[in-house]
Structure to design on (292 residues):
């Protein structure tokens, strides 16, 4: 089921993309409730406008959640050792978000192949929103 | 405003109980239907023997468990009206399991400022370490918060 094969993974290989969205305002309400995020900027249009934005925007952690699912598809549950993102641009309701990544390094630690990747989310126009990197540990035993 | 004197300051510690219900609700809010997060029977047969949490799940309890949400932001000198999450980093030893209780300790890892076209931005890095009942580290989080100085 995992997207990356420990014995065949190569530097430059792309991780299988994951598409989510279009993101709806209901998605943001559901994420705010489940994550306990107290910031009204994601669910209250007026609050967001008063704070100087064109409207409510998605939680950065919602998109990071999509990236988490994307990494688990690539390496399996429990494979993610390190996971970092910068919230470079805001994600808006109505956008379709695709998680993408590419392998940048591979090494062995005895029991696992350690795979380093650059990862990001982008909208339907290819504009990158979250930008980061991750380390996956793939069991070497077949 | 945040000051460099705060670097290294310990934040109040806390604990978090990981429940299957909350993990499943969080996974559903992400649209993630992995049965290891949501299906008790499937998870029991799986490699971890219990429901486990998606990688970003710690965000759902970290701030609350540490010190009561918004008060922390005020204590740090951040302006809640302009507060944004700038960066997030996690290191994991293993997935979080439903039924376990984690002990959290937090500290201020860094404080710095940057000047840009919109004025001065204050950056505060919160570091949180979570340990299990055996005292082993389960995850480490580095959370960079940014607010605009007004």
């Amino acid at each position: 089921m995992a997207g990356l094969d420990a014995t065949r993974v190569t530097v430059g290989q792309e991780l299988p993309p994951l598409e989510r969205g279009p993101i709806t305002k209901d998605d943001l309400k559901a994420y705010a409730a489940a994550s306990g995020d107290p910031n009204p900027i994601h669910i209250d249009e007026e609050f967001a406008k008063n704070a100087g934005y064109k409207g409510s925007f998605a939680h950065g952690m919602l998109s990071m959640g999509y990236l988490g699912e994307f990494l688990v598809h690539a390496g399996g549950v429990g494979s993610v050792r390190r996971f970092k993102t910068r919230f470079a641009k805001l994600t808006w309701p109505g956008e379709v978000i695709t998680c993408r990544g590419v392998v940048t390094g591979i090494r062995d630690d005895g029991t696992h192949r350690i795979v380093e990747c650059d990862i990001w989310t982008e909208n339907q126009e290819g504009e990158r929103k979250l930008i980061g990197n991750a380390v996956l540990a793939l069991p070497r035993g077949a | 405003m945040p000051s460099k004197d705060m670097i290294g300051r310990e934040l109040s510690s806390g604990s978090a109980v990981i429940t299957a219900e909350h993990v499943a609700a969080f996974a559903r809010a992400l649209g993630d239907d992995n049965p290891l997060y949501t299906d008790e029977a499937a998870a029991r047969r799986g490699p971890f023997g219990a429901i486990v949490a998606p990688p970003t799940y710690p965000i759902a309890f970290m701030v609350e468990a540490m010190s009561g949400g918004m008060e922390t932001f005020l204590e740090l000198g951040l302006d809640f009206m302009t507060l944004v999450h700038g960066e997030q980093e996690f290191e994991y030893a293993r997935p979080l399991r439903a039924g376990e209780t984690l002990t959290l300790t937090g500290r201020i890892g860094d404080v710095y400022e940057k000047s840009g076209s919109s004025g001065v931005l204050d950056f505060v890095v919160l570091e949180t370490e979570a340990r299990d009942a055996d005292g082993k580290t389960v995850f480490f989080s580095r959370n960079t918060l940014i607010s605009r100085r007004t």
